[in-house]
Amino acid sequence: MIAHATPMLTVGQKAPDFSVLTDNGKPVKLSDFRGKKVVLYFYPKDDTPGCTREACSFRDGAGELRKRGVVVLGVSADSVESHKKFKTKFRLNFLLLSDAQKQVVQAYGVWKEKSLYGRTYMGLERTTFLIDEAGRIAKVFPRVKVDGHFDEVLEALDPSTRAPAKAGGPLLRIALSERRESKGDQPAGSCCSCG
Asked: Where are the beta strands (DSSP E) in the chain?
């Protein structure tokens, strides 16, 4: 287990390449997506309330992201099997990457000292990186607050888009509405059990 924090990457730096297993047990490298924009988001743990809401917001907005040529990759230290269950349970439509050895979280500087009830420990800090087509960091969202984060990402991808200040604002409702119309399933804003 990694016992120390490393500095977080900054805008303009080359995004470190990595090779890890996906939720389907196959290896993937960041460089496999060269030429595409990538939303690389780090989250603490599968199937927890905040992480589920974040994953569902990316799932529900996948159509909007695809229109912009964006690939979404979720990363945590959970196992491939945990990722597989999480992806199936919430019908996630993007890859989850297993960083069980914590090499990627270390390389991106999101393995941080945290504290809870006066106890300090090392843990993954919820962070999102936008990576451009050339493999450089275009935007960093440190210490992400889940509510409204999808809209922040959309705004960063297209600065002419004015994201709302509140969670579940117009951009998310548009993406959810498009998804509902194309799938004919859950009402806008619902996400299995996190809705």
From this structure: 19-22, 27-29, 37-42, 70-76, 95-98, 111-116, 119-124, 127-131, 137-141
Which of 51, 56, 191, 194 does the annotation list as catalytic?
51
Name the phi and psi angles at 160, rounded to 5. -75, -15
The CATH number assigned to the domain with range 19-183 reads 3.40.30.10
**What is the arithmetic mean of pLDDT over 150-164?**
77
Whole-model pTM over 0.85: no
Domain ranges of the chain: 19-183
167-173 long-range contacts, CB within 8 A, separation 24+:
171/64, 172/57, 172/60, 172/61
120 C-beta neighbours (distance < 10 Å), count: 9
Q: Is 194 a catalytic residue?
A: no
